[in-house]
């Protein structure tokens, strides 16, 4: 049976027990749960009841990318997933996505998802990005991030090929990694919503919106030439 490692970066998050419960309630059994405490000073007590069911390590605060990288290096699974400590997986998330990956011989996939509020109530229709073809993916990725990192499943060999998250990017490390991955692998999309992504006042995308905007520009400029070349090559191939 293929093993799936799920990395949960944790930093002062009151919702951590909801995230861990969703992992322990997965219908797929061969799951390795790795919680990386990124220098938290609050809510650590919420993890104590789970310590016999998870791999747990603490580090100095360095940001989500650094926590994810520590988790990836600890992981022994064939596939890597990421779950933010304020988000929730549907019970069948791992099973259905792994089956999808296997059928499509995929190295990277992402799924549809819903947004929820602080109380856990769904507040949007499904909001995953459903590309019609690779050209559309390339065009959208050249403009900004279209993938929710917590909806992804990644073959561990991908990291050997493209490297880990860039820890100098505090907020757009995921966008940068997807931009590197798409240069070597197809991004497969599973249209079934399998993630609940929590929207709340203390989330980083709200607190640091201006910083994220500036970092996005850095990532766009970093990969602009390569993605433009891939778009040109794809169009030329389609026109043959």
Describe the structure.
This protein has 240 residues and is an alpha/beta fold. Helix content is 37%, strand content 20%. It contains 8 helices and 8 strands; from the N terminus they run E-H-E-E-H-E-E-H-E-H-E-H-H-E-H-H. It has an 8-stranded mixed sheet with strand order 3-2-1-4-7-6-8-5, sandwiched between helices. Helix 4 runs antiparallel to helix 8 and helix 6 runs parallel beside helix 8. The protein is globular, with a radius of gyration of 17 Å. It starts with a strand and ends with a helix.
Question: Which structural traits does this protein have?
Answer:
single chain; 240 residues; alpha/beta; 8-stranded mixed β-sheet; 8 helices; 8 strands; 37% helix
List the helices and strands and how they pair.
Layout: E1 4-10, H1 16-24, E2 31-38, E3 55-59, H2 64-74, E4 79-82, E5 88-89, H3 93-103, E6 108-116, H4 134-141, E7 153-155, H5 157-162, H6 173-181, E8 188-198, H7 204-207, H8 209-238
Parallel strand pairs: 1-2, 1-4, 2-3, 6-8
Antiparallel strand pairs: 4-7, 5-8, 6-7
In short:
By secondary structure, this protein is of the alpha/beta class.
